[in-house]
Design brief:
The chain has 218 residues and is α/β, with parallel strands linked by helices. The chain has helices at 23-37, 69-80, 97-103, 108-111, 129-142, 156-159, 172-197, and strands at 4-9, 41-45, 83-88, 116-121, 151-153. The chain has one domain (4-215): Rossmann fold (3-Layer(aba) Sandwich). Helices cover 38% and strands 12% of the residues. Strand 1, helix 1 and strand 2 (41-45) form a beta-alpha-beta unit.
């Protein structure tokens, strides 16, 4: 079943150092291409396309119809999506602040009851794997639970070129299989969750929307 998926790029660093600039764009393009090849709709969300430079004010805190147009458009995309791919480098053993800053502009009710996939990368040898530990907790709190398989790409500049294609000499078949394991899990869970959401009568428990007291024990 064709799915509507969003690929979030967790990087705003478009200058050097480090080199190459915007390494994460290569990874995000590779993920997007594979989802499109699988027959799905896949849209790459680049945080540089949004003006988030002012004081933090999330989309849900605006009066109806008063949110900035770019945030409103992204909120609609998040709500309409069947699942998400989160692409992040590693900062101090944690996820990219650019990614969390963008995602934090939207309430968990937009993400909830949909799956996500974690994709991390680095220019060095660890592939951002330590950031993924933090991302599991964070994405679960948003409500878009991450699938069990993950993608970690060390020395990503040696795997992908600027367009997200494999570099010369890379064993593309092995990488394709590695990507497929995670993206296939994402598609399976997204289809299952979509089927459940489409059933007559919305049986989902209320999402956290008002204040922290909604989480309080009796």
């Amino acid at each position: 079943m064709p799915l509507n998926l969003l690929v979030f790029l967790g990087s705003t660093r478009d200058t050097t150092p480090p080199r190459p600039a915007r390494l994460g764009m290569r990874v995000a393009q590779a993920c997007t291409a594979r989802l499109l090849e699988g027959g799905h709709s896949a849209v790459l969300i680049d945080p540089l396309d949004f003006d988030l430079s002012g004081p933090f004010k999330p989309h849900f805190s605006y009066a109806p119809g008063k949110a900035p147009e770019d945030l409103e458009a992204l909120a609609q995309k998040i709500e309409a999506a069947d699942g998400y791919v989160m692409v992040s480098p590693e900062y101090n053993h944690s996820m990219s602040p650019a990614l969390s800053h963008l995602l934090n502009h939207f309430g968990s009710s937009l993400y909830s009851y949909k799956p996500s996939a974690i994709v991390t990368y680095s220019a060095g040898q660890w592939g951002g794997a330590r950031a993924a530990v933090n991302m599991r907790t964070y994405l679960s709190e948003l409500g878009c639970l991450p699938v069990s398989a993950m993608i970690h790409i060390p020395a990503a500049q040696e795997v992908f070129d600027e367009s997200g294609e494999y570099q010369t000499g890379v064993d593309g078949a092995r990488w394709d299989g590695y990507f497929e394991r995670t993206l296939a899990q994402l598609a399976w869970w997204a289809e299952a969750a979509g089927h459940q959401r489409s059933q007559p009568g919305d049986t989902r428990p209320d999402a956290f929307q008002r204040d922290p007291s909604q989480r309080n024990a009796p």
